[in-house]
Specification:
three-stranded antiparallel sheet, six-stranded antiparallel sheet, 323 residues, elongated, alpha+beta, Ribulose 1,5 Bisphosphate Carboxylase/Oxygenase, single chain
């Protein structure tokens, strides 16, 4: 059944409504206006909300319905396209800045639980999707490459850092590795490698080079992935020769922006706890700042004078002078 894009009401007679018929668009911001006593509340609360709530309650189990009581059907012939509804009474809304539509309707906790269970984290800087992957999943993804795909498994050691990095290269050589990729170019580790000291460099260890075919050795791929993750602090690059390069990470981290995220929990979406609240506004959505125009009433006067022209002595200046 196709989803309707409108709510159709026929024969609404609740309270002072006079058998009206109308259509209301769904997923739109709709305002019902009129003079006092014209039936605005009768339509919005006593008809639409009441019928939406009644239908929702009827969809629950008999055990759950016994705690909610019986809800009467509003005086209306037919309503189509109506979803479960939420009503917020303007009279009882708190003026607390931490009071929102979600807290007033008591759906805030359900949303926090929903987002923490099915949410997909993204980097807040570049917007890239972030996934946590173990060795088995990485190996499965690699084995799904097209047949005859040539690829390298790389372990990042230096990321966008200045210097010649001679000690790093010597250490990699002592670990038994034979190749490096420096700034996108492959080098044999026994070559004389000279890097410019004042330029940014990227250095990766070439862990292994493989080809996808019917006889691919998954154990070898798994061993290479584990080695790469060990030296790359949980991150490896899989470079398809002549194709794309894919970044895999054991942690929830954006390797491009060097941003790490914590595991999604219900408290991650709570603006009432330090764990989930913005550190700048503490979860209020706005921050308190000083307005210079309210402090300096007359910018033509010196700092020693008040706005009315009188002088005042700073009590802290002598203390600072003694220090």
């Amino acid at each position: 059944m196709a989803k309707s894009n409108k709510i159709s009401i026929k024969g609404a007679r609740e309270h002072n409504l006079k058998n009206i018929n109308l259509e209301i668009p769904r997923e739109k911001f709709v305002v019902i206006t009129g003079v006092s006593g014209s039936g605005k509340s009768s339509l919005a609360f006593d008809t639409l909300y009441a019928e939406g709530q009644r239908r929702y309650v009827e969809s629950l189990s008999a055990y759950a319905r016994q705690f909610l009581g019986r809800m009467e059907k509003p005086d209306v012939d037919q309503i189509d396209g109506l979803s479960p509804s939420i009503s917020i009474d303007q009279k009882g809304v708190s003026r607390n800045p931490r009071s929102t539509v979600g807290t007033v309707t008591e759906i805030y906790d359900y949303f926090r639980l929903l987002y923490s269970r099915i949410g997909i984290p993204h980097c807040y800087s570049c917007g890239k999707r972030i996934e946590k992957q173990d060795v088995q999943k990485i190996v499965e993804n690699i084995c799904d490459y097209d047949n005859e795909t040539r690829f390298m498994i790389l372990s990042p050691i230096i990321r966008h850092m200045k210097g010649q990095h001679l000690n790093v290269i010597e250490k990699i050589k002592s670990e038994g590795f034979s190749r490096l990729r420096i700034d996108g170019e492959i080098f044999d580790i026994d070559e004389e490698i000279k890097l410019e000291k004042n330029k940014w460099h990227n250095i990766e260890i070439v862990i292994d080079r493989l080809i996808i075919d019917s006889n691919i050795d998954k154990k070898r791929i798994s061993s290479s992935v584990e080695t790469g993750l060990k030296y790359g602090n949980g991150v490896i690059y899989v470079n398809q020769i002549g194709g794309e390069e894919i970044v895999y990470s054991e942690d929830l981290a954006c390797t491009d922006c060097n941003i790490s995220l914590s595991e999604l929990e219900p408290r991650s979406f709570s603006f009432n706890t330090p764990f989930g609240a913005c550190s700048k506004c503490t979860g209020l959505g706005f921050s308190l700042e000083v307005d210079p125009n309210l402090i300096i009433r007359d910018p033509n006067l010196s700092l020693k004078r008040k706005g009315n022209g009188s002088r005042r002595r700073c009590k802290d200046c002598p203390k600072l002078a003694k220090k």
